[in-house]
Amino acid sequence: MSASSTETWLTPATFDRLKDELDTLSTTGREEIAKRIEEAREDGDLKENAGYHAAKDEQGKIEARIRELEAMLKNAVVGEAPEASGVVETGTVVTAELAGRESKFLLGSREMASQTELRVYSAESPLGAAILGLKQGDTTSFEAPNGKDMTVKVLNVETFTP
After folding, report:
1. Does some domain include residue 102?
2. Which residues fall in a coiled-coil region (predicted)?
3. Which CATH number is 44's domain given?
């Protein structure tokens, strides 16, 4: 299950949770923030009205999250995790040696974090992009966000079970 950079792999449970979040934000979330903005607007001068500015900031965050969810759900690849074949792909649990320490994580969407105790890395992250397609025993290096070169060795690839 190799997902392109515009596709996001999600389990059915995660898809449903995100769809519910989108529905809530698009309806009651927008209604509540509009009411807060209107109430704050009635308090007078908008230049010095902290409540108004806080509500407008919150409105911007809600609208950004709605756009993010719409794009993610539109491009979602929904299904159970792929059966591990020894190759790192989106939806697999990877055990890797990273900076001399063993680390176990899920390669998937950050939205999957609520379904697992594991750390979740996206396939687009520096680590995820470096190991995507590697096999158990393969070693590679990548540039970490802090600018340092990191070496990673894939020790094991397993099927993700939420």
Report:
1. yes
2. none
3. 1.10.287.180
Please report whether residue 63 resides in a domain. yes
142's tokens: 């990548």
For residue 50, the Cα-to-chain-centroid distance in whole angstroms is 32
Encoding tokens for residue 76? Answer: 């979602």
The CATH number of whichever domain residue 104 belongs to comes to 3.10.50.30
How many C-beta neighbours within 10 Å does residue 129 have? 14
pTM of the model as a whole: 0.71
> What's the mean pLDDT in 127-154?
94
Q: Give pLDDT, residue 115.
A: 81
User: pLDDT tens digits, residue range 89-136?
Assistant: 988 999 999 988 999 999 988 888 888 899 999 888 999 999 999 999
Q: Are 15 and 73 in contact (CB under 8 A)?
A: yes
Report how far residue 136's alpha carbon sits from residue 1's, in angstroms, rounded to the nearest whole number.
Answer: 17
